[in-house]
Amino acid sequence: METKVLDTKGKATSDKVTLADSIYGIEPNDHAIYLDVKQYLANQRQGTHKSKERSEIVGSTRKIKKQKGTGTARAGSIKSPIFRGGGRAFGPRPRNYRFDLNVKLKRVARRSALSLKAKENSIMVLDGLKFDTPKTKTFKSVLTALKLDSEKVLFVVGNENDNVYLSAKNIKNTKVVSADSLNTYDVLNAKKIVIAKDAVNVIEKILN
User: SS3 helix, strand, coil % of the chain, rounded to 5?
Assistant: First the structure.
């Protein structure tokens, strides 16, 4: 699939880039996408949730009332889950939500996500995205030139550039990632994908 290359002013250059059909033109595998997104979100969870159970509650061990003759249910401890301030029954405990996926499956998922975006004509290729100094105003001008001010945008750069990351950091609905850390969730979560020209080959090397 051949696509034109835009400059930072939103104008088409004389250059064109061929996006590999093996990455941007396959039949999407929905289940692979589901698993990869599920893993990404699971890996974001800290798993530090915790509530106190009855054995961890500090309170009196005195029997609340006599066993018989009250006409109500038996009660042996103020720390019981049925009382206010008591321990929680079957409450959350710290756990690790991470799980592994086959590398081949993850590649299929990412190719599927990029193919979906390509079918929607949501992928743009940018000639270059390099800033000498961090400047949010400069990055905003690029968004305006590309007519992406009101869109949720994912910028994919070939090499890590701190100035680019810092320039986009405070802009709502805009995220910058390097080509080697591109993931299915970010691709699907964005409305438009802007790929730097030098990132195209990096993506092909990783996903082919």
Answer: 35, 15, 50
Beta bridge partners of 156: 177, 195
Residue 144 CA: distances (Å) to CA of 9, 24, 141, 151, 201: 8, 26, 5, 11, 26
C-alpha to C-alpha distances, 192 to 41, 131, 149, nearest whole angstrom: 21, 21, 11
For the stretch 26-77, pLDDT in tens is 999 999 999 999 999 999 999 999 999 999 999 998 999 999 999 999 999 9
Helix (H, G, I), strand (E, B) or coil at 166: helix
Domains of the chain (ranges, CATH numbers): 2-46+99-207 (3.40.1370.10), 52-91 (no CATH)
pLDDT grade for 114, boundaries at 50, 70 and 90: very high
Residue 12 φ/ψ, nearest 5 degrees:
-70, 135
CA distance 177 to 183: 9
Q: What is the pTM of this model?
A: 0.82
The full DSSP string for 97-122 is ------HHHHHHHHHHHHHHHHHTT-
